[in-house]
């Protein structure tokens, strides 16, 4: 249901969702459509088979990519997000690919937590950071 919920947030905010790598679901599955309610047909999304495909197709500037992880040391709220930022989240079960932690160390961000939990739900995390990035843009 995470992808459906993230998709719904993207529709609500007019942002594009990039799906990269092997998915643990079928995009046309009933569960995805149900969690996105009737918004899924309005979702602007792109499918990329690999991370390298994403980089080749989108050509994002490295400093405009932000990788969210419990292993990050800089809080998302201490980050200035540019208008064309990419927010990158890993799988809820295992996080980002291990090589990302070194390769993108300067762009790692975290959502600070004080309670006794390891992490937040993926769709909740995506919404928290997405809305902060949009809040910053609307403030300018």
Characterization of this structure:
The chain has a four-stranded parallel beta sheet, with helices on one face. A two-stranded parallel sheet has the order 1-2. Helix 1 runs parallel beside helix 5 (122-139). It is of the alpha/beta class. Helix 2 (30-35) links the parallel strand 1 and strand 2. Helices cover 34% and strands 15% of the residues. The chain starts with a helix and ends with a helix. The mean pLDDT is 89. The protein has five helices and six strands; from the N terminus they run αβαβαβββαβα. It has helices at residues 2-13, 30-35, 51-58, 100-103, 122-139; strands spanning 17-20, 45-48, 65-68, 74-75, 86-89, 108-110.
Largest sheet: 4 strands, parallel
Strand content: 15-25%
- The computed structural class is alpha/beta
What is the C-alpha radius of gyration, as a whole number of Å? 15 Å
Low-confidence stretches: none
Number of helices: 5
Mean model confidence by pLDDT: 89
Brief summary:
By secondary structure, this protein is an alpha/beta fold.
List the helices and strands and how they pair.
Elements: H1 2-13, E1 17-20, H2 30-35, E2 45-48, H3 51-58, E3 65-68, E4 74-75, E5 86-89, H4 100-103, E6 108-110, H5 122-139
Parallel strand pairs: 1-2, 3-5, 3-6, 4-6
Helix pairs in contact: 1-5
């Amino acid at each position: 249901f995470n992808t459906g919920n993230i998709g719904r947030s993207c529709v609500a905010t007019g942002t594009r969702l990039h799906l990269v790598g092997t998915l643990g679901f079928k995009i046309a599955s009933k569960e995805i459509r149900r969690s996105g309610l009737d918004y899924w047909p309005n979702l602007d999304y792109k499918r990329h088979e690999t991370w390298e495909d994403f980089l080749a197709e989108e050509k994002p500037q490295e400093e405009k990519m932000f990788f969210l992880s419990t292993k990050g040391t800089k809080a998302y709220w201490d980050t200035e997000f540019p208008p064309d930022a990419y927010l990158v989240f890993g799988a809820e079960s295992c996080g980002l690919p291990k090589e990302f932690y070194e390769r993108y160390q300067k762009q790692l961000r975290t959502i600070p937590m004080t309670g006794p939990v390891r992490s937040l739900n993926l769709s909740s995390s995506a919404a928290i950071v997405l809305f902060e990035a949009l809040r910053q843009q609307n403030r300018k």
